[in-house]
Amino acid sequence: MGCAQLRPKSGAAGDTARDTARVAGDPYAEMIEANRANWDARVPVHLDGGYDLDHLRRGGRRLADFEYAALDVSGRDVLHLQCHLGTDSICLARHGARVVGLDLSGESVAAARRLAAECGVDVEYLRSDVYGAVAAMAGRRFDIVYTGKGSWGWLPDLHRWARVVADLLRPGGRLYLIDFHPLFLAALDDQPDAGRLVIGDNYLSAGAERYDTPRSYTGNGLVSGATTHFLWSHGLDEVLDAVRSAGLELTAFVEHDLTCWGRWPWLVPLGDGWFGLPPGSPRLPMMFSVLATAR
């Protein structure tokens, strides 16, 4: 999602949406449709601030050094799932990848296309729900599936997601997931005092959680219209088991003590939109990354 917060507690002509969640009998159909409408409504707010899009337009990057070190994307076909405004898609393309970005929100896809054009970068964007990605790609396969930074909490079924990823990868292709650590994102309280973090919510899965708020995680305004959305908590055990169960071989798992979301005002800016804990603070995993290979 391009560094999207999962838990905010306080479309172009010719697109064909392939949203399999709308299939009759899918228990998540209405929830995913609500989320699609909510992300459509968030786009004007996110374009108005928070993503530092001018930094990106000037050639600035948004990926961390460890991401570039983990992935050799030059000359490779890369699919960016849940790309939102496509900020990370643009960074991948600037490093030589042939990138396709996919998102369930038509407004996000339209904004991503405009942003890529403003940055002078060639990225293909398609609208589809994640669970319909295989059909949306119409037989295309990729060397790398890149995803994360606020994506997994919007997915009700991680095992189904991992099977989709496996179907999208060529033999020997790699999944790279970089996302917020569930301890940092889901379990810790939103407004702790500096240096005093408090557990305030679920770490492990507790089913769908409904939210209704006009506030998003970034931007200068309020979401208008579709404010209802649904989120799901997932522990690291669920993430790793989903990857393994889909037949992907886990080759790396890392917990990171930095974040691309300035969740608390006392976090220390590290540059390029990344933040760390103040000096002297206990080390806390704020993000994690998974690298897995299709056998």
Q: Could you explain how this protein is built, in words?
A:
The protein has 295 residues and is α/β, with parallel strands linked by helices. The protein is built from 9 helices and 12 strands. It has helices spanning 29-47, 53-57, 65-70, 87-94, 106-119, 133-137, 158-168, 182-187, 236-245; strands at residues 77-81, 98-103, 124-127, 142-148, 169-180, 208-212, 228-232, 248-256, 258-259, 268-271, 274-276, 287-294. The strands form 3 sheets. Strands 3-2-1-4-5-12-8 form a 7-stranded mixed beta sheet, sandwiched between helices. A 3-stranded antiparallel beta sheet has the order 9-11-10, with no helix packed on it. A hairpin with a 2-residue loop joins strand 10 (268-271) and strand 11. Helix 1 (29-47) packs parallel to helix 5 (106-119) and helix 7 (158-168) packs across helix 9. The relative contact order is 0.19. Mean pLDDT is 87; it is low at 5-24.
